[in-house]
User: Which sequence fits this backbone?
């Protein structure tokens, strides 16, 4: 569920998002409810095991809009009683009142965009909160009953040092969240950051970024967080079920502008025109995957997971042996020490370090 509204767009962000007033919020959510109805008429009362409300910043609009969306989903689809329902939140817009409304409405997982505990780094990223405001939001979320919280942190930020990144890691694990997502900043073309840092000057150098990467693995492991995907760590049993669905190619429905959907054979990419969407245009570009495309996706998405992928699952999905299709690539990566080629195929620690190279072998 894409909620594309922000108080102000961050300078590094290339997601489809806007700063809009309450009147636009209402038009968008009215359209969103219509889109859910129209989709349900087409696909029927499908089972739903997870809901992810992302943005933008979903905590910017009035909380009752989110409640209305959840009610509509439960009305039109078979939402499991134990479904994982996540909402992304930023400290500057996740008020105590909103957090209580979300929890009462059945949202049971919160993903907070912290990025850094250093106020100077938050300012560099043009974030609207400071560390103290984040701490207050985290505390209030616990009081509101959220016992499944993810914290997003970011490395390779301008002005960031290995020492300041270590402080962020240590402060975050001291809070004992259930899940931590640790990403490196990517300077995307078309953002203000790209104009400032496209030549790499002002960013931590490659060696420092690599040290941050290794420090993350080491320190989080020492505090009971196990890495289950390239950039994601969790306490046992607290892996994000929704994202596991993406990486294992479970079909999903996307609602809102720029939202993606996947039915097992086709991918749908919605347009990003806010006016068209509010006027009732829910059209999307459709890509029908060939068997070759689908097999490649199975490999490079599944290998993001530390557990890797089972050859038996490949056989079940495509009726062919993985070794028959990708034997050359598997043997090459295994010989390079980047992959374990058994009944379960998985990247080694060294392979995870150069995951993009490994996955490119299957594209």
Assistant:
């Amino acid at each position: 569920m894409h909620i594309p509204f922000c108080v102000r767009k961050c300078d590094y962000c290339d997601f489809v998002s806007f700063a809009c007033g309450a009147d636009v919020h209402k038009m968008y959510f009215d359209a969103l409810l219509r889109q859910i109805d129209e989709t349900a008429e087409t696909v029927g009362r499908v089972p739903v095991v997870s809901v992810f409300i992302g943005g933008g910043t979903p905590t910017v609009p009035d909380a009752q809009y989110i409640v209305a969306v959840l009610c509509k989903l439960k009305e039109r689809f078979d939402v499991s009683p134990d479904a994982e329902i996540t909402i992304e939140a930023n400290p500057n817009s996740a008020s105590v009142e909103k957090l209580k409304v979300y929890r009462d409405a059945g949202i049971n997982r919160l993903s907070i965009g912290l990025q850094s505990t250093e106020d100077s780094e938050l300012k560099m990223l043009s974030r609207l909160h400071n560390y103290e405001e984040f701490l207050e939001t985290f505390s209030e979320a616990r009081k509101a009953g959220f016992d499944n919280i993810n914290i997003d942190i970011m490395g390779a930020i301008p002005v960031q040092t290995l020492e300041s990144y270590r402080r962020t890691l240590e402060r975050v694990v001291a809070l004992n969240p259930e899940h931590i997502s640790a990403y490196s900043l990517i300077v995307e073309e078309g953002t203000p950051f790209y104009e400032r840092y496209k030549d790499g000057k002002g960013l931590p150098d490659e060696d420092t970024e690599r040290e941050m990467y290794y420090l993350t693995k080491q320190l989080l492991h020492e505090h009971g967080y196990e890495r289950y995907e390239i950039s994601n760590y969790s306490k046992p049993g607290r892996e994000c079920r929704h994202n596991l669905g993406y990486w294992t190619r479970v079909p999903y429905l996307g609602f809102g502008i720029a939202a993606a959907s996947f039915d097992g054979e086709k991918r749908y990419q919605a347009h990003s025109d806010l006016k068209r969407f509010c006027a009732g245009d829910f059209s999307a570009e459709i890509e029908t995957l060939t068997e070759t495309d689908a097999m490649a996706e199975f490999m490079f998405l599944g290998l993001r997971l530390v557990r890797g992928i089972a050859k038996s699952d490949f056989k079940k999905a495509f009726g062919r042996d993985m070794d028959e299709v990708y034997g050359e690539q598997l043997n090459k990566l295994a010989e390079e020490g980047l992959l374990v080629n058994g009944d379960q195929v998985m990247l080694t620690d060294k392979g995870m370090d150069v995951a993009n190279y490994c996955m490119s072998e299957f594209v």
